Known about the structure:
There is one protein chain. The chain is α/β, with parallel strands linked by helices. It has 3 domains: 5-126 and 202-282, Alpha-Beta Complex (Spore Coat Polysaccharide Biosynthesis Protein SpsA, Chain A); 129-184, no CATH class; 293-407, no CATH class. The protein has 16 helices and 13 strands. Helix 4 (136-148) packs across helix 5 (150-160). The radius of gyration is 24 Å and the shape is globular.
Amino acid sequence: MKAKVSIIIPSYNRYPLNLFTLRALERQSFKLSEMEVILIDDASTDATPLLADYMDKAPFAFRYVRHSVNVGRSAARNAGIRMAGAPVIIGLDAEIIVGPDFVRHHYRHHQDVRPAVVIGDKREKLYSTLFRELNSSQVAELAALYERSPLARRKIRKRLEMSNQQPASDIATHLQRLKEPKKLLQPERLLATLAELSVPSEHTDHQFAQVGSQFKRLFAPWLLFGSNHSFPKQLAESVGGFDEKFSGWGLEDIEFAYRLHQAGAQFKLDRKLSRYHQEHPILQGRQSERLQNIIYFQEKFPNMAGCVKSLSLLKGPGIAYYDRLIGEYDSLGRMSGRSFDLFRSALILMIQCIPHLYKKKENVRNLLHRTGFTAGSQQLEKLVQERTMLAAHGRHPELVRLFDELTGY
Length: 409
């Protein structure tokens, strides 16, 4: 039977987490005979190649593809898109566990005529496996689980060989003694024990809480695109897939979603599409990779949409705030009768300075001077006039406020 849904899972060194991901897909209420799963092993150095044997026992069409060299997240995803035999693609990170109705809920949104990009909101942080390299924040969450959940406490004690009298504060010491990862989750009781081994993801909850019931009114719903999404294969191909110039971790998915939005896709939020992110060690260098990708994004799209992520280096991430900035910036560009091109250009140039200064480990200061505006120049005088007129209009308060903040650095 021809597949209706292709689930693409790029994976690099995520064993045994990726095995739990596959086991959760076995329990879908969607017809397993109508879905295919494509796992792209991007030259993992762990035990991921063992999943090649999973093909013989998978209850759905399963393809395991191994790259001989690591080509990166975007290229791995594009390889999966090319191989996909279904018109609907669900993108899933290798460490994500989903509930039994996950595929069914995604698929139903793609029955409309207009191409749709579907995203889910709720995310829990799941400790399915214990690793020696977990950071202090993750160890603190494990300790909270130990205190809260009798099941988690029993499993942690057993895997770490702790006595019944030992407190949660001893977890860090015992983790350092691990010679290999230890599973807390058991495949046969996969879905039944998820809640007992999970803690809320405050970052994700905060992002979606800002949006509330206003999702349909967002100027930039693509900002919420993450590890829980689906889209038509034809639409992905029409925009050229994921940009393979993004290197390492971060923003390749957001930039892809931006282009889908520019192509006219309708974005839908389904709050039933929850998922569990299996916590794992955080690789060193991830933030430097993200910084480089921020620079590439803003160079590719020198507008507020392409540059807004640079502001996350100065401010805490705020989807609602970024959305207002993008909406006001685009609105200002459409205004007739008066040009504010100098103001818009100066604002973008100042924002673009921020990640470069961070990369050089320099203080973020003198942003306006760095963009070429010198004291006493006619250009600076004109810029101040545009800012004053814009403030008087009162229709773009976030842009004016941001301008004033950046010129204060």
